[in-house]
Design a protein that fits this description.
Blueprint (H helix, E strand, L loop, with lengths): L18 H4 L4 H4 L5 H15 L7 H14 L10 H6 L1 E8 L2 E8 L2 E9 L15 H11 L7 H15 L9 H13 L10 H5 L2 H4 L8 H12 L12 H19 L1
Antiparallel strand pairs: 1-2, 2-3
Helix pairs in contact: 3-4, 6-12, 7-8, 7-11, 11-12
Amino acid sequence: MSSQQQQPKRQPEADPIKYGDVFAVSGELGEKAVKPEDAAMMQSAETAVLGKTQKNGPAAAMQSAANVNVSAGLVTPGDVTDVAAREGVTVTGTAVPGANIITESVAGQVVAQYIQPTGGQPQDTTVRREITIGEALEAAGQTIPGKPVDQCDAAAIQAAEMRATGSNVITPGGVAATAQSAAAYNESMIRDEDKVKLGDVLSSATKVLPADKVATRQDAEGVVGAELRNKQDMSTTPGGVAASVTVAARMNERSQQQQS
């Protein structure tokens, strides 16, 4: 989860810089040229949510790529990418103790995710609280609530539940069992709108889990491994279960260092 973006790469003449050259995106968006109005929309979204555009963030990367495309005569000022105009750009914050998880997306695909500490936190260490695995699961459900649950998600959720409860047995009716049922159901569905979403499964994870614990680096490694074993591209889902548990573990380590 890093705010650092790849620098736009120079393309052969008459080949504009595309979203797939700048961000880890795929499908229709990855093949589209980055255009000036796309960057303007992201700048506005960042400013509205964060108070300013982020140095080296998505808006800056998009503006740089768009400038190159305009200078090369491949797009014109005022141009907007159809898929970005149709599906929009978003900047959202998911609150966790002591910080916000900021997620920036273009046309529904995550282009950046990073941690923004919240100011004015009490200095009394007795007030400071670390993030549990259940809270990390809920954060994933809030970050990408519309993602259809697949076997990768189910495996990661199962690993997270087992680490939270300290048991190797899946709790009947629990979050892992629900995720497995959702993944199996979704495999029989063709349209995404008919599938069970991550937000549906994880919205009440802390209430459903019979036990919970503070997320650690070892927990994160276990959840990441479970998700990767089920993905052909061997990469975790941005904003997904493994990514959220990893963020929680890092924040907990930081909190522990500040208290020591």
